[in-house]
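step 4 of 6: structure.
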Amino acid sequence: MSTAVKPETEQTFEANVLKSDKPALVDFWASWCGPCRQLAPTIDAVAAELESEVSVFKVNVDENPNLARTYKIQSIPALILFKDGAELRRATGNISKQQVVDFIQKG
Amino acid sequence: MSIRKKVTILGSGSAGLTAAIYAARANLEPMVIQGLQAGGQLTITSDVENFPGFPQGILGPELMESMHKQAERFGTQFVYDNAESVDLSSRPFKIKTSSDEIITDVLIIGTGASAKLLGLESETKLMGHGVSACATCDGFFFRDREVFVVGGGDTALEEATFLTRFASKVTVVHRRDSFRASAIMVKRAKENEKVHFILDSVVEEIDDVAAGEVTGLKIRNLKTNEITEHKADGVFIAIGHQPTTELFKGQLELTENGYIKTNGVKTSVKGVFAAGDVQDEVYKQAITAAGTGCMAALEAQWLLEAEEEEVREQKAL
Ligand SMILES: Cc1cc2nc3c(=O)[nH]c(=O)nc-3n(C[C@H](O)[C@H](O)[C@H](O)COP(=O)(O)OP(=O)(O)OC[C@H]3O[C@@H](n4cnc5c(N)ncnc54)[C@H](O)[C@@H]3O)c2cc1C
């Protein structure tokens, strides 16, 4: 995991993600999920590249089942982009680096 | 960047990685363009029980990681990207990824297959919101819920059995009254108390698009044409796979069903070989993909050797 990507938990989600002054990208994942592992290096790369533009977090759904439930996650990997505490958009499944960048910048 | 290669392999499933192991050991320094699903279809399954050499079975992702390491050990170069276009009109062939152009004497195609969908609008709209094509990825989110599996092959019945780890009830909807799946899979599913069957039937509609979640299914019996409604929290689509051949349309001969047409592993273009599910309408197994991957690498090696020999002879004249 690159240093630009921070693991996130139920306890700190509000402070770090919902109250983030930058848009926040959250990657919901689990260790048993093959496509999540395939997406991970892409997320690392994008986080490093767009560090000034967006904060990037990872939520392990095994360790944070309440967050998965709150955001009605039914498929992983799931990316949700938050802005000013609200969900702006989401994407599921393994996508390419360009698609992640577009997801953040254009939707 | 432009990269010059003798052998380039598209895909990193069993076919692509086995081809890489053979080509690398023949000192051909192959490049593998992995595609977005590094490791291929087996990375979305759990236990693989029929790959020889693993008497206790092995996890799909683990098997693919081992194949990757084995190919790497002999000097395979890996790129984590999709091929976006290929030009097979003359040799050397050209392949474009998002950042590079690869120019290669020989191309081995192992782009495999991906899940077929039902083709309903509600299915597309609810994908990721209760509709899934991957039980091992998404089953976890259906703890104590009622889910449906659509299909009657090995994958469908394996997914149904797998989903009983989480779901309270799993109903298999299949359009015939007999199964394509292997006897052991059928037996296992039938013996599981949580698995139920609705046969001779198809899914007409998935509800509820307006609510943005799966709440139920409309199922039509093909014999009586009667439509029944069922409460559902999730639907897993497992009606088979289609070959990934979009890139090659108009450049390689394909079969009626869209697979790459092969003679052994030779395609209609000299220097292009195809291996695994992308050219196999019949067996579609990890071991057969590995087998044809091996064949493709050996054919590639022999072709390159014969061509080098020709050049030498011409120089000698
Ligand atoms: C849920 C499930 C369970 C299964 N269980 C078993 C089992 O127990 N035993 C068994 O033998 N078989 C099993 N199979 C079948 C087995 O997975 C396949 O037969 C095998 O993976 C085929 O290998 P392949 O290399 O031909 O293709 P795939 O595994 O399909 O790999 C295709 C590769 O091509 C890449 N690719 C696609 N498009 C591009 C592109 N444009 N550019 C570059 N790369 C690209 C992908 O990223 C991927 O790496 C299962 C399949 C599924 C879905």
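step 5 of 6: annotate
 - Chain B has a mean pLDDT of 95.
 - The first strand of chain B starts at residue 2 and ends at 10.
step 6 of 6: archive
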